Amino acid sequence: MKDKQIEKLVEANEYIEKYGFSEKIEYEHFDKGLSEDTVRKISKLKNEPDWMLEKRLTGYKIFESKRMPMWGADLSDIDFEDVYYYRNPKAKETNDWEKVPEDIKRTFDKLGVPEAERKFFAGAEAQFDSSVVYSHVNEELNKLGIIFTDTDSAVKKYPELMKKYFGMVIPPNDNKFAALNTAVWSGGSFIYIPKGVKAPMPLNAYFRINAEKSGQFERTLIIADEGADVTYIEGCTAPVYAANSLHSAVVELVALKGAHIRYVTIQNWSKNVYNLVTQRAHADENAKVEWIDANIGSKVNMKYPSIFLKGNGASGEVLSIALAGDGQVQDSGGKIYHLAPNTTSKIISKSVSKGSGVTTFRGLMHVAKNAGNVKAHVSCDALLLDDLAKTNTYPYNQINRNDAIMSHEAKVGKISSDAIFYLMSRGIPEDDAIAMIVLGFMEDLTKILPMEYSLELKRLIKLDTSGGVG
Length: 470
Known about the structure:
By secondary structure, the protein is an alpha/beta fold. The chain folds into two domains: 2-303, no CATH class; 416-470, no CATH class. The chain is built from 13 helices and 24 strands. Strands 5, 6, 8, 9, 11, 12, 14, 16, 17, 19, 21 and 23 form a twelve-stranded mixed sheet that branches. α2 (36-45) packs antiparallel against α3 (50-65), α3 runs antiparallel to α9 and α7 (151-157) crosses α8 (159-165). The protein is globular, with a radius of gyration of 22 Å. The two termini are 14 Å apart.
């Protein structure tokens, strides 16, 4: 028993060494708290055009006027006046990894950014608190006409695209946190894939909250022109602090006629982060959008990737993984709106709860009156690792057609002691047996991920489920 506890402690220490560390970084930042003056300062520091400042000020006014959500997780502990809305590490963006300051480089070395890029990815962006500090795009992407840059640079370099699409999919009045992001956004990824071009390999970004009581509000916009194809993968981490941090991103995807976008998130914020994200896609005629959303970390996670199927023959999929350990609330799911004929969709959710952790699935499937010949499927499965764990399911189907084919299934179960006993009788330690069962439960989602991310996700799941039965 003692050897087993030592082994678990070693694994936990390895995890903290890789993800729970923080670096002492020299910052440029404003005082805590949000005001119109804060918004104007952010815009001025970035030397933005007037049209973006106006968007920010509109977002701020809407944020001030909107109430907090009256549903979902408890957000009453969030103090908007106790957050740093802009913390800029004193490092200029560079496309040469060797020129990144050593303290920031150490952070991303521990996260595997340069190694991952060298071995696998065409291009990578690294965002540290409010700023993108490292950006590199493979020459092959440039030759194909693919634009992959940070959103701040896109405002200046590609103003016509930004004016047209920024806030088109998610307007600032969508919800309080979308308004907040519009007001104080900083960093994020901007991607444009030209007509008929297929990105030869995944594009990749890492987001890191390093400082205590920091807010991170990146803004990501991906546009796939007609017949284009792209996969984008983001990873998110934060150190362990007693004081809460706030992450409130906005992600907008635009898939034009016949395009395909796959968006993958591996979210492993520490258990002091409120992760309140708005993600939405528009899919035109015969376009396809996939969200693959893995949520392992955070104190409270509220995230419901959505797809508006606007064109004839469009399709969408939301594949969601959520794992809630002690003290965690994973409130996730997906929404799909069938707004055109001959559209198809699928929402698949797998959640695991342990100890005082709570998982909640919220799903919406909407079929408009003019959307004939729709096929849609929703599946939400939950696994409880012990007697204290909780799970909730709130499916909502709005079907306005008699010819729509809609199926829904849900299962909730507790991990089988017989299955654990069987594996242990074959010489497999209890923690490994639990992890094997959980990974088998999530296999249809984890196998979709690129190899490096699949292995990392499996390791995180194993660490989070250790000692789950007892």
